[in-house]
Design a protein that fits this description.
This protein has 377 residues and is α/β, with parallel strands linked by helices. The chain folds into two domains: 9-250, Type I PLP-dependent aspartate aminotransferase-like (Major domain) (Aspartate Aminotransferase, domain 2, 3-Layer(aba) Sandwich), CATH 3.40.640; 252-376, Alpha-Beta Complex (Aspartate Aminotransferase, domain 1), CATH 3.90.1150.10. The chain is 41% helix and 15% strand. It is built from twelve helices and 14 strands. The radius of gyration is 21 Å and the shape is globular. It starts with 8 loop residues before the first helix and ends with a helix.
Length: 377
């Protein structure tokens, strides 16, 4: 059996090696390493794929979130609502800009931000909501956009884990994740569904004025060289990474289908295991499975993870400590679902190159480990 990895980038590369190598060679030959043709072409291709007017590439996903908040003129002390069950970057940039992260609980089945908790958290200083499209499907954007409109709030979508997922509104309108709110922010970290060979990120918006401002902020606050109209940062996607992303973007739908097929296999294998809750699918969003994350009920998750790793199965826990319990972001409040999930969830290998032999090994190993653990407890 081929070596099992949480994400198999080596095998994925082998399938597109000729195209990727040529694309990188072209960048080296034309020496346009920053904002070269590869960046401009990728930007246009991604705009077309997402059906959004403006894509602004940047250096990484964390920068994308920070630039989004800078572009919205959020001021120190302003409050930004987001979920406690997410990666630290979502809250990190809020605090970095001297804004106040207001953390709320999530849904126990989808792991997405809880809309009712968002409503309850809104106060006079609230200026924005950052829904996280966690693990590969879109948060309840119809409700979130209604809340934002009612309270005159901005919405910044953190779509680092769900690029390519599609959300359907009650009227049948379909939009790609990241293109629904005022600004979308994503990461092209190598392990992402659309990942480069280093760091990279991008912002999306339909607002021309916002797009202009975002571009300026990402380029030292200038639209014309040496004329700085905004306080900016240095955050650019380099041409080599854009060249890689341009090739991978052509394959993104195929990659999503491969992930979905693997997830369906996992679902069937675990359907009759009472201790396992497989990932819920919301009816109005496709799921592109950045992670395949299970809940383990009635058994000790950490003992299971240890047993699986001893059997040669790589597994990960996203996330063992909620943001509201992190030393840098501690908040008082009631977060029963988040705290429960942090004790129950674990993620299995999920990528575009999983073959039948690997899937059989993974599922059999999990079922056997749970059976053994069940006997011990």
């Amino acid at each position: 059996m081929r070596e099992l990895r949480m994400v198999d980038l080596a095998t994925q590369y082998e399938a597109i090696k000729t195209e990727v190598d040529q694309a990188i060679s072209d960048v080296i030959s034309n020496t346009s390493f920053i904002n070269g043709p590869a960046v401009k072409n990728f930007q246009k291709d991604l705009e077309s794929y997402l059906e959004v007017e403006h894509v602004i590439p940047c250096a990484n996903g964390t920068d994308a979130l920070q630039i989004a908040m800078m572009a919205l003129d959020l001021q120190p002390g302003d409050e930004v609502i987001t979920a406690s069950f997410t990666y630290v970057a979502t809250a990190e940039v809020i605090a970095l800009l001297k804004l106040k992260p207001v953390l709320v609980d999530v849904d126990p089945d989808t792991f997405m931000i809880n809309v009712e908790q968002v409503k309850a958290a809104i106060g006079p200083k609230t200026k924005a909501i950052v829904p996280v499209h966690l693990f590969g499907q879109t948060a309840p954007m119809h409700s979130i956009m209604q809340i934002a409109k009612e309270h005159n709030l901005f919405v910044i979508e953190d779509t680092a884990q769900a690029i390519g997922s599609e959300y359907t509104f009650p009227d049948g309108t379909k939009m790609k994740s990241g293109t629904i709110g005022h600004i979308g922010a994503t990461s092209f970290f190598p392990s992402k569904n659309l990942g480069c060979f280093g760091d990279g990120g991008a912002l999306f918006t339909r607002d021309e004025n916002l797009a202009k401002k975002i571009r300026m902020i990402a380029n030292h606050g200038q639209s014309i060289q040496y004329y700085h109209d905004e306080i900016g940062v240095n955050s650019r996607l380099d041409s080599v990474q854009a060249a890689v992303l341009g090739i991978k973007l052509k394959n993104l739908n195929k990659y999503s289908s491969a992930r979905q097929s693997a997830a369906e296999f996992y679902d069937r294998a675990f359907a009759n295991i009472p201790e396992i809750q497989t990932p819920a699918r919301v009816s109005n969003s496709t799921h592109v499975f950045h992670q395949y994350t299970l809940r383990l009920k009635g058994l000790n998750r950490d003992l299971l993870v240890t047993a699986l790793k001893e059997k040669g199965l790589p597994v990960m826990v996203y996330y063992p400590v909620p943001l509201h319990q992190q030393k840098a972001y501690q908040q008082e409040g009631n977060y029963p679902v988040t705290e429960m999930l942090c004790k129950q969830v674990f993620s299995l290998p999920m990528h575009t190159e999983l073959d039948q032999e690997q899937l059989n090994f993974i599922t059999q190993t999990v079922v056997e480990a749970i059976t053994q653990l069940r006997k011990k407890q």
